[in-house]
Amino acid sequence: MDIEIKLLGKKRVAAHFDGYEVVSDQPIEDGGMGAAPAPFDLFLASLATCAGFFVQSFCEARGISTDGLIMSQHSEWDEKTHLVSKVEIKIHLPASFPEKYRASIVAAANQCTVKKHLQQPPQLLISLV
Questions:
Q1: I want to staple 48 with a disulfide (CB 3.0 to 4.6 A). Which of 15, 73, 92, 125 is the partner?
Q2: For 85-114, how does the pLDDT look when each residue is reduced to its tens digit (9 = 90+)?
Q3: Residue 25 backbone dihedrals phi, psi, to 5 degrees
């Protein structure tokens, strides 16, 4: 995938790919306008939405309703390293969710491609052209 980055000024940056534009900004307290999520927030959201995609696909493939199914994500920040030290995604199942699929839906969420890339990170190069 190729992504073109445009610097919009005032801490805003746009990524253009596949006909989409994703804009990021910084919070007001960091000099931005707070008009869009910060890049790191988009990264964390990609973890949650990726897991959500796999949970939804699991349910759809089995004809299981997702009504009442809620997912939440919590991140813990390490003040010493200034890095996230833990990310936990919770799947809150409705009472009607079939018991026999409880372990399998967790396994489905664990198939998240973003998570797999964190476990085996790609080489990241930055260069001038």
A1: 73
A2: 999 999 999 999 999 999 999 999 999 999
A3: -145, 175
* Residues 73, 14 share a domain: no
Helix (H, G, I), strand (E, B) or coil at 25: coil
Q: How far apart are CA 87 and CA 115, in angstroms?
A: 10
Please provide the average confidence, as pLDDT, over all residues in the chain. Answer: 97
Q: Are 32 and 20 in contact (CB under 8 A)?
A: no
* DSSP-based three-state secondary structure for 83: strand
In a domain, 25, yes or no: yes
- Map tokens 């990726």 to a residue: 50
Which residues constitute the domain of residue 66? 39-119
What confidence tens digit (pLDDT) does each residue in 24-65 have?
Answer: 999 999 999 999 999 999 999 999 999 999 999 999 999 999
| pLDDT attached to residue 28 | 96
Residue 99 per-residue DSSP state? G
Q: How far is CA 38 from CA 31, 32, 119, in A?
A: 12, 9, 23
Q: Which of 7, 4, 3, 75 is nearest to 41 (CA)?
A: 75
- CATH code, domain carrying 45: 3.30.300.20
